[in-house]
Design a protein that fits this description.
The chain has 3 domains: 188 residues, Aspartate Aminotransferase, domain 1; 214 residues, Type I PLP-dependent aspartate aminotransferase-like (Major domain) (Aspartate Aminotransferase, domain 2, 3-Layer(aba) Sandwich), CATH 3.40.640; 152 residues, Aspartate Aminotransferase, domain 1 (Alpha-Beta Complex), CATH 3.90.1150.10. It is built from 21 helices and 16 strands. The structure holds pyridoxal-5'-phosphate. The site of pyridoxal-5'-phosphate has 16 residues, from helix 1 and helix 9.
Amino acid sequence: MQTREQHIRRERATSNICTAQVLLAVAASMYAVYHGAEGMQRIARRVHAQARMLAAALAALGHRAVHARYSDTLRLRPGPRSSDAILAAAAERGINLRRFKNGDIGIALDETVGPADLADLHRAFGGTGRLSAAAPGAADFGPLARTSAFLQQPVFHEHRTEHELLRYIKRLESRDLSLTTSMISLGSCTMKLNPTAAMIPISFPGFAHVHPFAPPQQTEGYRELIGRLERWLAEITGFAACSLQPNAGSQGEYAGLLTIRAYHRSRGEEQRDVCLIPASAHGTNPASAVLAGMKVVAVECDDGGNIDLADLRAKAQAHAARLAALMVTYPSTHGVFEEAIQEICGVIHQHGGQVYLDGANMNALVGLCRPADLGGDVCHLNLHKTFGIPHGGGGPGVGPICVAPHLAPFLPGHPVVLTGGARAAGAVAAAPFGSPGVLPICYAYIAMLGACGLELATKTAILNANYVAERLHPHFPVLYRGARGRIAHECIVDLRALSKATGIENDDVAKRLMDYGFHAPTMSFPVPGTLMIEPTESESLAEIDRFCEALICIRQEMREIEEERYPAGDNVLKGAPHTAECVTADAWERPYSREKAAYPTAWTRAHKFWPRVGRVDNVFGDRNLCCSWPQGAGPPAALPLA
Ligand SMILES: *Cc1c(COP(=O)(O)O)cnc(C)c1O
């Protein structure tokens, strides 16, 4: 893997939903690493043998397997006992079975199933619970049987003891510059603490082992948790109703816009399909609008980074007959509380449109003001930003939408489990409540902080951001501020003039920060050539100071280049990041010292994070994906992408 920063590109916007599955993918890959091909086959054979044992035993009772060939899943046509009686008997033994429309019953086995479970299943179908201990016949997958080798790479052979696997995982983890080392100041991402006390409950079996389609009488606890959370989030945003179904902010945008479209349609205004979006918006906004079948019209921003009111009025007027919605982020993606927000919402309503408020920056609002009062009709929340759920590879996110009363009937529904509004258009996710497995984190976060704690968190986040802006301003200009000279919860540091003077780009600053033990801020969003910093409420003054000092030291390193003490093309910034291998090599031909490269501050001596990889050409790297696994063990070594 190459070492990269976060560049949020407008036209190539990605969502947390793109990285949310990483944790699950890593968990699944570790399963394969530990078991290897032999282990996976052993597991599959055992499960298949159990399926054969069960099929034979049930056939003897008169329940026939519908398919001659199967792996771990049986579809049974009930004989002497009715499906209802079988399902009831299984449920009594703590087993949920699938019921097909025609009365057939589906049973899926896996490696967690043991002899006692098979006995219970046998009893549910009217048997004695005594099955033969050996599977009849031999495994038969017919033409589908796999004959080719798989998982041949060394990694699937080398970690077969728990110690080895532990060390392998730890080794990989140590390459990651994560929150375990230092603050991650990614603007627009709200990389706050994921409190341990809030995280632990998601591993409780009662939360972790519930199927999304489990019968309602088995999920009363979950429903209570979901119901309370929906009410809390509605209260926090000032709205009437909430849907937890969307799996990310972007999906919330999509769901919210579908809700708006359904509302217009219900009033005979099918033609309303124009969505106004300010030029400063996060790239997921226009992408969601297009997915929802809307036509995007961009609204200009003024020099202060605020929505250009005259342009907004003109465009709302010009498209009045077809105006469906405005998507607006508050505080803005520039990190400023736009003072005209209520006026902006008023203009849209006046022309028959609805206001979609992008709530990704809710960490600057919770407890202080409510999107509904600002004039929004619907907003999404990023529970993985504002409400403590991990993100950026840390597992599934949640992007609920909260809506005003007139939109509540159109909240997303579900074909299997009853949820959503009375006139719901459909589902936006496969599971009725999205990823309920992570909701206990958000529930605990809100419950533990309470109203006072949530408000204090918001105030602290805003204070921290303003502190960063004030500390950095003498060294790097801070781009946008509100009318009273203050910012919201994040600030944009402008490097463009310095880049022009020194040839040092924001990429160089980002790479150099790694030498100081810091993850780079968000790059070039929403303004190219800048850094966007969001400290959140979770960081201590000492940590924020350490981060500011790193940037101030880097400013000094830039000055050394301005003063021509080091060449513009060969200096500690252009050479960053510095790996242990590079600074300890016998040969060193750079114009600065090794010490300057690797130990620029006292704290790097106390705890040094070593970047794994030196400078790579980002653009070339993006276009030329390299597979580092051994030749002959898979696809070719280089896969040119462009
Ligand atoms: C993060 C973000 C989004 C997208 O949210 P995801 O959960 O990543 O889909 C949308 N708008 C803004 C302003 C954001 O910061």
